[in-house]
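To the structural biology subgroup,

Please find below the input and predicted structure for Integrase zinc-binding domain-containing protein, which we are adding to the shared reference set this quarter. The sequence is reproduced verbatim from the submission form. If anyone notices a discrepancy with their own records, reply to this email rather than editing the shared folder directly, so we keep one authoritative version.
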Amino acid sequence: MEDILECNVIRPFQVPNSLPKRTVLSCIQRLFDPLGFLSPVLIRPKVLLQKTWTLKLEWDAQLPTDTEKEFRSWLYKIALLDQVMIPRCLYLDCERDVQLHVFCDASCEAYASVAFARSVVQDTVRVVFLWAKARVAPWKRITITWITRAQTWNTFVKKRVTEIRNLTDVKSRVHISGDENPADLPSRGCSAARYLKTEWWKGPHWSYEDPGDWPKTELMVNKEEVNMESTECVLTEVALERRCFSTNFSSYPSNLRVIEWIERFSSRSCKRGICAGSLSAEEIEQAERTMVGIIQREAFEPGKTYGKNLRVGVFSDGLLYVESKLLYSEESEHFRRPFLLPHKHPLVDLMIREEHLRNNHAGTHILMSIMREKFWIIKSRKTIGRIVRGCVKCRRFDQRPIRRRFWTYF
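Predicted structure (tokenized):
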């Protein structure tokens, strides 16, 4: 008694004279093949059914003559599958030389993959069928050359290519011709008679030979079809123009938050770090440095002097600073090397106005001392005085009382 798998085709297949699309689907669903032993045969009616969808036929509409003829020919030969006998036991031992061979192929009508286990015991080669899968090809053509290239693909292709490349070694992937590839048959389909003649489930004939004699061909790639699924990585530099700050955002903290949210989005997109929740103090400080860089690039031209008797240096990130006379003191870095800022810029005005309000409408001299702890504003007295004089509340309380004039009549 042999331990084998057989195919029991229910006979007879009662097919009416009228063959609508509904009947074709019913016949296909009667055959259950979970391991894919019969995938080269069962893929043919599925391809024919897809063609009926392209014709937009109703479920009870009659099939075209050529399609009906091809389906009846396939159906009459399906009884030959009763002769298929496949060994069920694998006889695989972990101590033996066992290799897993997976083949894949695609045509205009379908794509398929099949796996065999090859073992060598005392110079005897044994190839056993494991499983196979065949699917009808989508209307949009695809190519399997993606897995050999490390390009930037679209999202659908990228996820699958990345998984394949992570689970397999590039050196283990070899291209062979269609005649030597066992996945070629289920990707194109065949009749039951041809399936029995080829004994497809026994594996390719060359797998029984020495590995040095295995076929290997050079892969010919259609670059145009491959590049259709690739995406260009476009690096966009967002130009933060001056007018967007002076019109859309009227306060200095609002500008800082906008810049930091932009930087957080950029960081998450480039996967440099995942931040969530409210903005941290470190992020706010980095946003302020970014804003200082925007101001300096708009206000200062390279190679020109920035003021009389000013010793200007450059930080590692390209920001300009002023070397104060307290360079070697024990004060903070910002106090010893304050950022250089111009006296005419909307962001500088917003910065001074924010400090003016934060310090309870402080006057010009107090604001100069506070701003000097971090920034060096050219013509700071004139600039800060202009902002203070423009404060409505300060102007109201600084007004002198009206002196009444008394007239003397003689």
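Summary notes: Residues 281-299 form the longest helix (19 residues). The CA atoms of residues 48 and 67 lie 7 Å apart.

Regards,
Lab coordination
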